[in-house]
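lol forgot to send this yesterday, sorry. struct tokens for the thing we talked abt
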């Protein structure tokens, strides 16, 4: 039996996160693979599931990139 109290409930799929951050889903996948910036959870079928904290973090990263910061520098400074 699965106990939802063991982890915060994921709230957002990649399409929603892409829309709310202005970052394309393909770019989000690359950031996750290269820089470990991504979803906290994956469903049993492998779908990314983003928490509110994940979303807010990606919104910050997206804003920094939009203002000229390099993603590699942002990711390595965390």
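and heres what i got for the seq, position by position
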């Amino acid at each position: 039996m699965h106990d939802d109290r063991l982890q915060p409930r994921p709230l957002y799929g990649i399409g929603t996160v892409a829309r709310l951050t202005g970052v394309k889903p393909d770019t989000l996948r690359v950031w996750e693979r290269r820089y470990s910036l991504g979803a906290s959870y994956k469903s049993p079928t492998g779908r990314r599931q983003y928490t509110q904290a994940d979303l807010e973090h990606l919104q910050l990263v997206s804003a920094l990139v939009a203002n000229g910061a390099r993603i590699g520098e942002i990711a390595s400074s965390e």
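Strands lie at 41-42, 48-49. anyway ping me if u want another try
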